[in-house]
Amino acid sequence: MTFLERIFAHLERCGSAPVLAEIRDGRSETVSAAELLSLTRRARTFLHARELNPGDRCALIAPNSIHWAALDLAMMAEGMVVIPLYTRQAPTELVAMLQDAMPARIFCSDAALASQIQQLWPDAPHITLTDSIFTGETADLPPPFRGNDSDAVTIIYTSGTSGEPKGVILSTDNVNHIIQCTTARLDQLMSSRKASPDAPDRVFHYAPFCFAASWILLLTALSRNSVLSLSTDLASLADELKTAAPDYFLNVPTLLERVRNRIQETVQQRGGFAAAVFARAQRAYTQGREGKAAFLDSLALSLANWMMFPAIRKSIGPNLKALICGSAPLAVETQLFFMMIGIPVLQVYGLTETTAICTMDDPDHVVPGRVGAAIPGVEMSLAENGEILVRGPNIFSGYWQRPSETAKALEGGWFHTGDLGEADSAGNWRITGRIKNLIILNSGHNIAPEPLEQKLATLVPEAEQIVLIGNQRGYLTALITANSSNGFKESTVQAALEVMNGELPHYKQIHAFHIVPEPFTIESGLLTANGKLKRDAIAARFTAEIDEMYQKKPA
User: Fold this and answer.
1) What φ, ψ does residue 387 adopt, rounded to 5°?
2) What domain range includes position 260?
3) For residue range 480-531, what is the model confidence (pLDDT) as tens digits?
4) What pLDDT score was predicted for residue 101?
5) Do 79 and 145 touch, CB atoms closer than 8 A?
6) Residue 365 belongs to some domain of the structure
7) Are 297 and 214 in the same domain?
8) Of all residues in the chain, what percent are helix, strand and coil, respectively (each to 5)?
9) How far apart are CA 348 and CA 250, in angstroms?
10) In what order do the strands lie in the sheet with 359-360?
11) pLDDT per residue over 30-69, tens digit each?
12) Domain count, the chain
């Protein structure tokens, strides 16, 4: 059976059991498996009536919703190739990707956005508003289309941190393998953590389905005994989490850093005995992992485990069994922080081209600072320059209409990830940076900026983003954005740099910085659709500020 056949079979078996929910205004609006199948049939009927055929490409531009999932299932059941796009991207960027993909039809949830696309691209194919799809009747339908396992099921556009986004073609084979691996790993996670073996996994989700990892989580949840609750308002994430009360959910490092900082700030504001115990508990946990914890610190850790950590866990999510984190390296200090309070953080590493996943942490053997071992069936190796190479059934078939770039990415039968990393003796990988992000000083030193940016971020938690500068310069500098609701002083950064630079070789020391008062955003063109830094665009936007930093003689 293919992943899609397994999903439909699972939904048929589940009947009236809930499978998907949208959280709105503190309430969970749930649909059963039977209701989701009914919505999917309604969408399939709409597609049939428009004479859309297997192999046709169709774009889907909409935020996460029950309707999104139903339309995605319907298009795949009709054998179409789904092109999911992000509603928050600039219309000009969306049109560029649409013109590259040339879909037979565009499905869009927002009338204003549809109008902008039409204005920018007068010759665009027909644009259908998604709500209209689910208002009609259901006709008799053939079984879901069953093509070849090598057939494309989706084209997902990369984030485009430099250059234009590329359409990554993923096949049924790719998704089949990954869903089997994610299902096995979640079974392992929950096998000893459920109150009842028949209870469904409660899963919360906020990342857009147009991203590969997010889409894989949706398909995995629909393949197993789960209820997936969808966020509808990122500004109310904390309240939505309380409503969903999940067992686990997928995260990006930025959110976990914010949660950690919020907890630490709250404890510090309380002051007195609680702050003292918490500080000693943190020290004990860190030193205890090295076998060096002092007696009084260990006593504080025991006290915190009894008095403080249960309340902290409840404030994040009363039923949390684990947090899953991907998209970028997570600071080891943050991973250890959550482990200390009793919430394991399981890391996942992969790219769109690897169907979102190459490695997954083993829930029973987490190594902080690493992203786990390669999943079954997948090989990972290092090139001479330290680049991670991957091959296996998860590797994409190619970039849409880019044969030369496909050949380069798959040279020698391995996918060249562009990431730097290394594996320990047990095969657990650590990601150290991106090759294209390497800073080469005019002294010849090569520096991966990500570890230094992460370190400075832990010392300046008020900072929203940190970007190291220094390519073909004499020393490193940094652009630091302030959280718009929580600015900070230059003296805070200076103090942090004095601590950090004292532990670094001379060529890795940061000698100047500039504070940008507002965070970089997707709308400003300085972040990709999935929140990654557009380093070239940032450097171009802040040329004057960067030049000014280098006019000053470093200390």
Assistant:
1) -75, 140
2) 253-318+322-360+370-435
3) 998 755 567 888 899 999 999 988 888 899 999 999 988 998 888 898 877 8
4) 96
5) yes
6) no
7) no
8) 40, 20, 35
9) 10
10) 27-32, 18-24, 226-230, 201-205, 248-251, 323-325, 345-349, 359-360, 373-374
11) 999 999 999 999 999 999 888 899 999 999 999 999 999 9
12) 3
